[in-house]
Structures are given as structure tokens and as C-alpha cells.
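Notes from hallway chat w/ T.B., transcribed later so I don't forget. T.B. wanted the structure written out for a chain they're using in a teaching module, and asked if we could keep both sequence and C-alpha cells in one place. Agreed to drop them here.
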Amino acid sequence: MARKSVLVFFACLALLLGCKFGVSTKSEKPEEMPKLPRPVGYDTAFLVKGDEVHGRLETMNEKEIEFFDVYGKKHKWQRSEVQRIEFQKLRAGFEAQKVQDLKDELLEEILKRKAKEEDYPNATYVVLYEKTQIKFDGEGFDVVTRYIAQVMQDAGRYSVGNRAIWYLSDRSEVEILWARTILPDGSIKHILDNAIEDGSVYPNLSDYNLLRKHKYALSEMSVGAVADVCTKVRFKKVSPLEPFYVEFLFGETEPILHKEVIVEYKTGAPVKTVLNRKPSPVVSYEKCEENNKTIERYVSSEIKALPRESDMPPLSEIVPSVVVCYSERDWSNLAKTYFEKLKTVLKADEGLIKKTTELTKDCATDEEKAKRLYRFLVCEKDYTEIGASQWRYEPHPAAISIQKSQLNGLDKVALFVAMLRASSIDAQFLLVRGRDRGRFVEEAVSLGAFEDGLVLCKLDGKETYVSLTTPEVPFGYIPGKLQGGTALVVDPTGATKPLITVPILSAKEEMFERTVEASIEADGLFKAKVKLTVTGSKEAVWRKKAVLKPEELQRDMIKFVKGVDTRAVLDDMRLSNLGDPTKPLEIEYAYHIPDWALKAGEKLLVFKLPEINYSADEIETEERASPIWWNTRSLIRNRYAVSVPENFTIRYVSTEEFKMEDSASGLSYNGTFKTENGKIVFEDEAVRNSLSLEPLKYPAYVAMLSTRAKVAQEWIIVESK
């Protein structure tokens, strides 16, 4: 009954808010505040001797200062005794001590229907009401959001009471209209200025220092308390290269009782809203056009919490979302506009041409040239992980970037394209929306949909995608988050389609292959020589070790074999081309483990294979509510050939074929034990050709992991003659 009453309340609320279909064009911002005396406690006097006194400034002249403190005491100081006085900002409703003092009918109605613990036993907090109003005035956007949430458990206190807004300082402004804690008894605690902090996210990166974080904390946020916050973000200017692109999700891992998004703009303005529908929850849409003004409204109520599961996809893949953007006419037009801006960025000056020639002068093929330039950019230019939306979509000019020691991804892409073209190699600049950012909305024509850069070049007639970040990423590898993503091709000829899908690498290009020559000795000693072949993201993991000094790398490998067994001793190692991402990585190591085999009686040795330590720990439950999501495909292979001691025979190895294959899910596993030329041979292969798995196909993944886990339980027995 409690939930039903909430639904009825919000249905009636839409009718009360006005306009033909229940859309309110009235901002959450109240009318101008009345001229009231400043309350005691909103001013702070900092005395020269070090004291801080909170209260209210009464009078101040050239000689004296009169000040009332919060205890009612009147102070009179000489000006020379006071270092400074700080004044708290008076936000809307500052004078209210109780909820009824606010005269806010909406808030009062919401609080009458606060969430009950029995209705939401697993929720750490409940969003009671969230409304965002977006208004485009022809130059920029105002985004006003009111957020009312109730703390249900201790774990929800931080999420509700500590919030932040990220914005770009050159084109946005942030204002907290009000932020207050409503305690269970109805009393109010207003936010104070010392609980608000605004600072640069990248203060030490002068070339990319635009992103700021406006964070604030509400006081006394206890279980049962309610946060009532209203913020305003002004996007002062928008353009094709300064996009306005926001996405609203109708669902999260905590319940939402009511959420709405209202967009208002002059009819015909370049504003686009797109609803990505999902089966649940239902999001209603209404549109009103009158007096040359368009208002669009999206509303949903009683949104259930999503279960928290591992390897979940981006939320926009599983819940409805609304994209609002300043939209261009079409993608071809946007690509051309962007390229016009990039012409000066990609222009090669004498210095760039000279450096390019110096790097490539002894290269015989386009691929050799590209690899040489790639190695220069990823090994000699530090990478800073700042995406386009965190800075700008227009990179620094390549002629300037080549002189810098640190670049973000977009600058590296632009510089690489410029250097390739200076080498007469066909190269194109791509802006990419990775799969990690959720569904691509083609109807919303905006650079704001994208975040990362990628280069598409033709090397000796072969198309090659190149990502430029850090030295551990091998040449020609597409990071997993970008595989299967959508890219905008900035093509000067206009011959290429403006939008393409980034290829998904094969499982073999994401491979981990282990080949082991081993022996078991009569005293139980296990000795192994291992060769690893790794590609893609698995290769990148190993290449991170390139920064280690020789003695550090030695310690790291010792730790690595200790991970096989605490008794393991590293005997030898060879890691070649670790720091050169343009050459194949070669990894070899040897180790031994004393007393690995267990002695059974006088004749038997019993053991398992080290490093084959599969488990089914990834299986949290037999069923899932959300799809399982991976960045890449995967191929894992093992081959062990184990020699037995002289005068020993192989008493037992499993003859079972450990096999699982499900073509519909793209999963397969095959593992076998056998004897071959007097050796124990184990081979297996696990293949995952899918990037995601719907809940109905999850049992296939469970079956694969369960089958593989059985292999790790298999014992091998050898017997002395």
C-alpha cells in the first residue's frame, strides 16, 4: 500500500504542476529572497591572536568592529585586532529552522511519504525525488537539478551527503542554490561555505587544466535523514567543438521513487533529445509546443534498484536513458566542420618535418616508419589520461605538441596523424565512443558523444588501427574499451562514411599461451621451464614491468613464481623487448618447487600440475539479472609435458575429456590428459568469442567455468618399478 500511495501522489503531482500535460516551466529556484537580517552564525571573525569567533557582524568603522557571537555575547574590537571577517553565502531558505518554515508544498508532500524500511530492506538510500530542468536560451544552457534522497542505512550516508559536480572552467559555472539536511524530527541543517570546496582536478597539468570539481558535504547525515539539494550549472557557450551533451539514466543500484527531465528551448533551435527505451522501467514522454517554445518532458516513477553484480555493462545498456544535446544537422556536416578546425592542428611545420625525417630516414616500408613514429610518441612522450570531454575536442597544434614532454590521447593522435602524413602515409583522425561509455545514440549529432582518439592508417596497403597512450600498449592493438565502439571519421575527401564501427579483435589477438617442459623427481621435486606467448591486453600487463630496474624485475619475478607456490624458487628468466611495443614480447622463466609431489607409501608419487589453479570462484550465483560484460574476447592455452623419474611408470592420469562448447554463447573449453613418449601431457584451450552474455545464456558460462575447475582437481600418480 505504501508504494501504491507514492505512485498516486506523483501522478497527482504532475497535474498540479501546471501546463497542458503536467509540465512545469517554473524553475526550482525560488523567487528573490526577502531582505532579512543576517542570522547569527553566518559570519566569522578571524582575530590577529588566532581565535575564530562565529556570529554576526553588527557595525564596522575605521576604528572599531561590533560583533555578536553565537552565544549572545557582544564583542567590540579595534580594527587592528581583527585580521579579516568572512561572510557565509545566504542561500534560499537560509532562515528556515523547520520544514514548515520553508513553505515548500512539494517538499512537505514528499516527506509525508518517506520511504519505509520494510518496503526497501536492501536499500542503503532511496531517491525520493529528482528533477532536472534544462533551458536553452540561444547562447547557452541552464541545468537546474533538485535532488531529494533519504538515508536508509549507514552505508548510504556518504553517497547521499557527499556530492560533487565536475565542470569545465572556461565554459561553465556552478552554483549551489541550496543544500540542507532534514533530520527525522523535521529540523533543518543548512550547508555552510566551509563544507564546499571548488578546485582543479589537474592542477599540475597547465596544458590541460580546465576540469574542476565542485564538491560539498551535508552535515548530520544520519539514518532517516533526508538531503534536499538544488544546484545550477550554467553552460555559457556551446558550439560544434564545445558540445553540450548530457545523459540521464532512469535506474541505478538504489531505488528511485520519481525522476523527471524537462527540456525547454525556442522551437527550431538545434536541441535534440533522444529516449533510449528499455522494457523496464517505463519512461513517459510528452511534448508541448506553444508561443514559439518547445517543452519536452520525460518521467518515470517507482524505479526498482538494480542488483549489484560483477562485470555489469554500462547502465545505459540495461536501463532507459535520455540524451540531451546541442545537435548539428548531420554527421557528415559535423565531420567537415571538425576537419576545418583540424587543418591548422595537423599542419606540419619545418621542425615537425625535420623530426619525422630524422626518425624514419632508414625505414624501408610504411609499417617500419609508422612503428618508429609510434615508439617515439609512446615511449618519449608521457601520457596523461585526460579525455576530450575533460578538456577540449580541438587538440593542440601538432607543431606545438612535438615540443611537449606530456600529451593526452587526443594530442598524441593528432601528432601521429601529422607525422604520418609528413611521411606520405595515408592516415585519418578518428574520434571514438568506446563500449564502456554505453550505447551510441546516432540521432544526437554531437562531438560530446565521443571521448577518445584513434588513428586509421594504410601501411603498405593494409588498414591498421593505432591507439596512442602508453608504452605497454603494443603497436596496432585497439584497447578493449574501444573495440566495437563507434568512430567519427574526420575525412578530408568526404569519401568515407562519417561513422564506422571499430573492429573487435579476434580471440587469438587477446591470447595467453603457456608452454611448459617439466619433470618430477623421485624426491618430489618439480622443475619447470616455461615459455609464455601473450598478445593484446594480456601483453600490456607484462609490458608494464618495463619501468622496473633489473633488480626490481628480478624481485617481481620471484614474487610471481611464489604465487604458484610459496616454496617455489626462481631459477632463470628472460624477458625480451619488454620496453619496445613495436617488437614481439618474449617471456621465458624457470623454477623448481621442493617436495611438490606427495609420497604415498614406498612407491607412489602423487601431484597436480602447478599453475593450473582454475576455480569457479567467478560464479557468484547460478543466475544473473543483468548481462555479463567483457572488454575483449579471450583465448587461453596451456601445454604441459612432464617427464617422470627413471625407473618410474605412469600409474594414473585422467582419461576423461573435459569439454564444454556452446556456439550460441561463443564459449568453449577443451582439456585432456594423456601419455606421450613416456611423458605426461596436458593440453587445454578456453575460448571466449563473445563480448557480452545475456542472463539467459549465463548458464553456459557457469558450465564452462565448472568444467575447467574440474581439471585443477585432477591428481597424477607415478609409481617406481
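Follow-up for T.B.: The longest strand covers residues 125-136. Might be a good example for the class.
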